[in-house]
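Researcher: Let's try something more involved. This one mixes different molecule types, so please make sure each is placed in the same coordinate frame as the others.
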Amino acid sequence: MLEQTETVLQGGAAAWFIRGVLATLSVPLIILISAFVGFAGLAHESGLTMAETVFMTGVVWALPGQVVLVGSVLSGSSLAATAFAVALSSVRLMPMVMALVPEMRTRSTRNWVLLLLSHFIAVTSWVLAAERLPEVPRERRTAFYGGLGSTLVLVNMVVVVIVYLAAPHLPTAVSAGLFLLTPIYFITSLWGSAREHAAYYAMGLGVAFGPIFHMIAPGFDLLGAGLVGGLGGYALHRLFRREASR
Amino acid sequence: MTFSSYDAWWWPFAFILAGGWLATDSWRYLGVVFGGRMAEDSEWLVLVRAVATALVAGVVGNLIFFPTGALATTPVWIRVAAVAGGFAAYLALGRKIIVGIVAAEALFAALLLAL
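Model: All components are placed in one shared frame. Result:
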């Protein structure tokens, strides 16, 4: 066992970058690809061009943010309202980055490297990294994560291109099925990543208030659902916690 | 100023950069700057996570009840039944996302064929 660990320790930054690339081959990658197939289908049906969708995947690289962005485009939200809604949906990235960065930082790590790598942090790469980083020598972790993160982004940009090329040839029922991937993926992944009951209540309220605000105040629907559902979910969480502790 | 305000080829990309990239990567950069200085279980973060969850759930609700394109041609009860069935399968069979996806798609296909 010790000998094995020593062999693994060997190898330069390039070797660890390649190991990071190979570490993406996993079940989470299959789920992520199916989620991006769904997202590309959604963006295509929403009238975004292939270039816009590939660009968005590369620069945003956070599926909830991208779905909110497409949703805002669909409901004709202003740029300010869109940025606000996307920012709200992406807040969760900050604690994720905060949790991962100390594991990659050494005394000689430059800050710009970490800023660059932080762009790759999203749910799937975070889960994979949290799982694999402990077995990577500390000074090779940035190289390893660089390989892992950049591969996930590139693979899914290619997935978007493939879906766009295939979309015009798909029967309506298949396109509808692709579109349906996004809601079921998010309902299950949001439920799975919830850490406290507040998120369950917020999810239920959000699913209901999105369509309600869509009817009474389109353009404000996502922000409305987020604020009412989030504050309401948090309030219910506090209320039930107090009842339970009585 | 919406996504379709200007005809210029670069406007959608500028919109995506300002409304998407800046709004997302700012949080990642703040995370690098503040790495290791904030407790993940702080009450403030619970609230923030709830708002973020409800926001994405709001999109999900709109996709089910007011979809565009091909999905809009399907009856609303089939969409609700497929997603609800997939979610139920996810909860009942060990909380695996892949189970939820497969169950929802299978139910969706079966109901469309039965129609």
